[in-house]
Specification:
alpha/beta, Rossmann fold, 3 domains, 27 helices, about 15% strand
Length: about 675
């Protein structure tokens, strides 16, 4: 096999996205093309430098990486005989070059898919081919966010159309009301896992229906229900058409819950009038949304109209259909809720952190007619992160030297206990190197973005990161609530701090966009003297840089609105420390030695935001002033922040293995997927 053939095979499987040695091969082919296309290996290969391809040393390195890839693919994983799993989700965050995600839900789905591959679980993902992705973010000179949608050219991405032996697209058909819609699929290899992306944008459909699957979370309620019909009903039909059987169907959020209706229809067609039990035996459901208003709902009229042909095929009455998505079947004013549908037709349901599970049980106890939330059959599996994806290349090198084969034994606490044998000077050099890499990236990146900023961040200053969706409940500007007080911290030249922000607000979220503008306005104030920066077009690459380089990861949502908040789980492997409200995963992770809590009680109910926000801002300032900043700058006789390094050790030892996607997928297999 030629070098070109090997590179094409590597580039056509997303395995490369969590193997830096493979990424480096593609980057070296054409650094400019690679960078300009969102780190896309196939675009770099298309415009490859022939001198690089002909270099014997390069060819040798390709051979080495290719053999590693083939060994991975040809060796069954330890869970190869586990339950055959089909995993449905609206978005999948695999890599920045394939922008099929908006935030945490998609990143979780991507990490879940990769972790399933690593353990060899027979796993098939189902999502949408969001050809326009979420959106690319840019700004005017006042910090107003704008969006553009560069279309994904499937030719130069690791996906291929699903076709029959005659080369024709394999399609299935669903209906929007009485209008037939044809759906094809694209196959994406993710290591040993397979992902099918559903697509309506081709000539078999009328022009106005072709765009149904193009954009994520855009359009009105009709567009949303159309996308969810495609995901759930067409998704299951596509699996049937391809002959892909599963032991368990995992609905990741309510967007895909219509697949249960298709299963009920199948049961009815097979003559089983009591098909709900059979559907429940096959389905599991994960809920993330901790706010009742955030659950996907549809008016009865819209639902009945858009599912009219489907309902006639099924033979269900209007009442029976609506009852599946209503808490009270006969309440004519109640909307159809996708979460209710998922809960009702799943054998097991779970939240994504311990606190999120408790919130979900309280949310839905009225559905189960109980005064005791503990009686509600919703458990939890706390999210984890795919360490090979998120560990910086420098981290891999450091950990390989000091911990040995840490990836093979990543779930063993003893692996991480070896951190204790690393000298303080080496651990601090590791932290400084990662911070320096981030500062270099930020200083370069800000010269390429539309926001008029020219900071020169300090590679030695305490660096705080805040990067996530700019939903208003995440309270991005909380740090500036008391402007005079925070300015005193920024003006301290003896103990300097600098803060890096990044994030997108949904195009229809005016409040989130105002938050971005507020942060941007602060970045332009001379008082901050280049110590505050906002990075535009937040994506997975920026996320990797920030979580690896920041000393402190700031998270200050209104509890309990953060379902899990997995970005904070990614910093521990890099020796970063969390500074967070006790929400999402942090109440399980924080022990007083491995980071800081903003407030101490994770059980109390939140007050009115007008009261709670100032209180939390005060707590945030106190932690920064009394603990975070003094600990960072308290140096021993050797010039090392001894107490800070002790906290780094604790975070790396106690958090990394507990909040990994490897642990998460094992929990799902043993507690959710296996009956």
């Amino acid at each position: 096999m030629t070098t070109i053939d090997q590179l094409h095979e590597l580039g056509r499987n997303m395995w490369w996205s969590w193997h830096p040695e493979a990424i480096d091969l593609f980057q070296r082919l054409n650094r400019d093309a690679f960078r300009a296309t969102g780190n896309n290996p196939l675009m770099a290969l298309r415009d490859a430098d022939t001198l690089v391809l002909e270099d014997p040393q390069y060819q040798f390195q390709v051979d080495v990486v290719y053999r590693t890839f083939r060994a991975y693919m040809d060796t069954p994983g330890p869970r190869a005989k586990g339950p055959r799993t089909s995993y449905f989700c609206m978005e999948f965050g695999l890599h920045e070059s394939l922008p099929l995600y908006s935030g945490g839900l998609g990143i979780l789905a991507g990490d879940h898919t990769k972790a399933a591959s690593d353990v060899g679980l027979p796993f098939t993902g189902v999502g949408l081919f969001l050809r326009d992705g979420y959106f690319r973010q840019y700004f005017d000179d006042k910090g107003q966010q704008y969006d553009e949608y560069p279309s994904i050219d499937a030719t130069f991405h690791p996906m291929k159309p699903v076709r029959d032996e005659n080369g024709h697209d394999i399609t299935v058909t669903v209906h929007f009301a009485d209008r037939p819609v044809h759906v094809r699929a694209w196959r994406v290899e993710v290591g040993r896992s397979t992902l099918y992306l559903l697509d309506t944008d081709f000539g078999a459909n009328p022009y106005d229906l072709r765009f149904t699957t193009r954009r994520l979370y855009q359009g009105d309620r009709t567009t949303r229900i159309h996308q969810e019909i495609i995901l759930g009903i067409a998704g299951l039909r596509m699996l049937r058409r391809l002959g892909i059987e599963a032991d368990v169907y995992h609905m990741n959020e309510g967007h895909c819950a219509f697949l249960t209706l298709e299963m009920l229809r199948e049961q009815k067609m097979a003559g089983n009038e009591q098909g709900a039990d059979a559907v429940r035996k096959a389905c599991v459901f994960t809920t993330h949304t901790p706010v009742m208003a955030g659950h996907d709902r549809f008016d009865a009229g819209l639902l009945l109209h858009e599912l009219s042909t489907f309902r006639n095929e099924w033979g269900a009455s209007e009442r029976d259909l609506l009852a599946l998505g209503r808490v009270n079947a006969d309440d004519q004013s109640e909307q159809f809720t996708m979460t209710v549908l998922g809960l009702r037709l799943a054998r097991t349901s779970n939240g994504v952190s311990k606190l999120n599970g408790e919130v979900a049980r309280r949310q839905w106890q009225h559905m189960y007619h109980t005064d005791n939330p503990a009686d509600v059959p919703i458990t939890h599996i706390t999210n984890g992160v795919h360490l090979p994806t998120w560990a910086a290349p420098a981290s891999r090198t450091f950990l390989n030297v000091h911990l040995g084969d840490w990836q093979a034994d990543r779930d063993d606490p003893e692996t991480w206990d070896r951190i204790d044998s690393v000298p303080d000077i080496d651990l601090w050099a590791y932290r400084r190197k990662l911070r320096g890499n981030l500062i270099d990236f930020v200083n370069d990146y800000t010269h390429t973005q539309t926001l008029p900023q020219s900071p020169r961040l300090d590679p030695c200053a305490l660096t705080i990161g805040f990067a996530r969706r700019f939903a208003t409940y995440k309270r991005a500007p909380l740090l500036f609530h008391d402007f005079e007080r925070i300015m005193r911290l920024f003006e301290d030249t003896e103990r300097p701090i600098q803060v890096i922000y990044a994030g997108k607000a949904h195009p229809q979220d005016a409040g989130g966009q105002r938050f971005i503008q507020e942060i941007f306005e602060y970045t332009n104030r001379p008082e901050f003297n280049g110590r505050l920066v906002f990075l535009e077009n937040y994506n997975m690459e920026i996320g990797r840089k920030l979580i690896s380089g920041c000393d402190v990861w700031l998270n200050n949502p209104r509890r309990p609105f953060e379902a899990s908040g997995t970005s904070g789980q990614k910093v521990a492997i890099h020796g970063g420390l969390n500074l967070s409200i006790l929400d999402g995963w942090w109440p399980e992770g924080h022990d007083g030695t491995n980071g800081w809590a903003i407030g101490e009680d994770a059980s109390h109910e939140y007050k009115d935001p007008a009261i709670q926000d100032p209180e939390d801002a005060l707590l945030l300032y106190e932690v920064l002033e009394r603990h975070v900043i003094p600990t960072f700058y308290d140096l021993n006789a050797d010039g090392l922040p001894e107490k800070w390094i002790t906290m780094m050790r604790s975070a790396m030892k106690r958090l990394t293995y507990r909040f990994s996607a490897h642990r998460m997928i094992t929990d799902y297999i043993e507690r959710i997927y296996t009956r």
